[in-house]
Amino acid sequence: LATGPRQNNGIFYEIRTYDIKPAKMKEFLELVSKYFHFRTAHSELVGFWYSELGAMNKVFHIWKYDNFAHRTAVRHALANDKEWQGKFISAALPLVEKQHNEVAYLVPWCQLGKPPKEGGVYEWVTFQMKPGGPALWGEAFQAAVNAHINTGYTRLIGVFHTEYGLLNTVHVLWWNESADHRAAGRHSAHEDARVVAAVRSSVKFLESQKNMLLIPLQCSPLK
């Protein structure tokens, strides 16, 4: 995690969340469908989702960058891309109520994964940990994640630790075949002694947590 070992390269992920005006979600998603290829021509999109449960009228996307110079060059190119600015940005901005972004790294014990097939649902879980960083809570958090993986009901896609944004925040992205499959798996996990023990060890470092059920858009590489 951030205060301990990290990747041997500068790769990071920008997590962007947009709150869309409630009456404008359909219009916004139509713009994405028509014009988002102008944006993905400039840098790598990891995933693009809209919220189904846990939040409303939110879209959520993750971008991969080699380093901060790479991001700066991409942002400069986007500002000068007339098709992107004219066809998407000018039409989309009036539909957006709020924007938020974070920069995060994958934790060193996690590689970015993929689902075994298309058509499932994603769960984005945000943990606000106590100040002190991974030196304080990193091992306990990793054990709790691994305990859920070991139950086999869910697939881990990525664990991200913030570098810019609210610090001591960890985001975990899971994939499940369906919302019902996830619900059944969670019920079983709560009765699994391995999960119970790992959660009890990690929760003492936890300030708060929240989750969202996410549906991928057609343009999302993670579907």
UniProtKB/TrEMBL annotation:
Pfam families: NIPSNAP
GO biological process: mitophagy
Domain NIPSNAP: 13-111, 122-221
InterPro entries xrefs: Dimeric_a/b-barrel, NIPSNAP, NipSnap_domain
Superkingdom of the source species: Eukaryota
CC annotations in GO: mitochondrion
PANTHER family cross-referenced by the UniProt entry: NIPSNAP-RELATED, PROTEIN NIPSNAP HOMOLOG 3B
Stated family: Belongs to the NipSnap family.
Name this polypeptide is given: NPS3A protein
Species the sequence originates in: Regulus satrapa
